[in-house]
Recover the amino acids of this structure.
């Protein structure tokens, strides 16, 4: 069965600093991958997705993620965070032939001035 | 489009009562998903539909939970009888086709006393 691991439950970053959120997946076939963001009291919003092709994908709000097959990772990055980026971030994995997504447990991001 | 619409946004009920959560997917989307989010278990897929037909309900916790999709623009998730451990945020999501982004509603926060 496919699984997603987000090893960091909570990360605190200073405003303007760079950010990297980790995501590791476990699945035998080629996965397709997503990063979602959830603000307090809101639903999940898609940041970016990877299906195939260029392993570095760009998303909204200045986020990017890199798919590394050899490391089974899909880490999310942002060069300079803003206070409005404080939220919970979820990595999700699916596989071709199955419409279901498996979500990680999420990483809560706190931004300090 | 207004996005995925869920009602009610908040529901407080007493143990043993019937609870009905409602969802209106985005027009034209063929897939509808029901998720439950708790601190302990994260985001869990309960059931999903394709063209109004339930495809996989393996995530439904027990017989107290049931879901229907009588037409392309409406779905319900019912819990009867409700228990305190059902307290969670329930999300509905829809997507236009397989492997595409799932658009999430704002969720229904359910509290069972």
């Amino acid at each position: 069965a496919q699984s997603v691991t987000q090893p960091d439950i909570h990360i605190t970053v200073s405003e303007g600093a760079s950010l990297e959120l980790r995501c590791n997946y476990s699945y035998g076939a080629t996965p397709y991958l997503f990063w979602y963001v959830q603000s307090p009291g809101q639903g999940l919003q898609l940041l970016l997705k990877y299906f195939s092709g260029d392993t570095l994908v760009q998303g909204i709000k200045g986020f990017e993620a890199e798919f590394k097959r050899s490391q089974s990772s899909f880490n999310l990055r942002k060069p300079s965070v803003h206070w409005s980026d404080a939220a919970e971030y979820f990595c999700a994995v699916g596989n071709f032939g199955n419409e279901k997504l498996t979500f990680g447990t999420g990483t809560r991001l706190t931004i300090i001035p | 489009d207004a996005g995925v619409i869920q009602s009610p946004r908040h529901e407080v009920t007493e143990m043993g009562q019937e609870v009905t959560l409602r969802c209106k997917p985005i027009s034209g989307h063929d897939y509808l998903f029901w998720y439950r989010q708790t601190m302990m278990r994260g985001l869990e897929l309960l059931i999903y539909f394709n063209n109004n037909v339930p495809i996989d309900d393996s995530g439904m916790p027990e017989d107290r939970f049931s879901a229907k999709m009588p037409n392309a623009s409406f779905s319900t998730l019912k819990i009867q009888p409700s228990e305190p451990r059902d307290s969670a945020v329930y999300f509905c999501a829809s997507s236009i086709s397989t492997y595409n982004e799932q658009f999430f509603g704002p969720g229904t926060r359910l509290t069972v006393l």
Q: What stands out?
A: The interface with chain B takes residues 32, 34, 36, 41-46, 49, 51, 90, 94, 96, 99-101, 103-106 of chain A (CB under 8 Å). The radius of gyration of chain A is 13 Å. The first strand of chain A starts at residue 3 and ends at 5. Residues 13 and 111 of chain A are 5 Å apart (CA to CA).
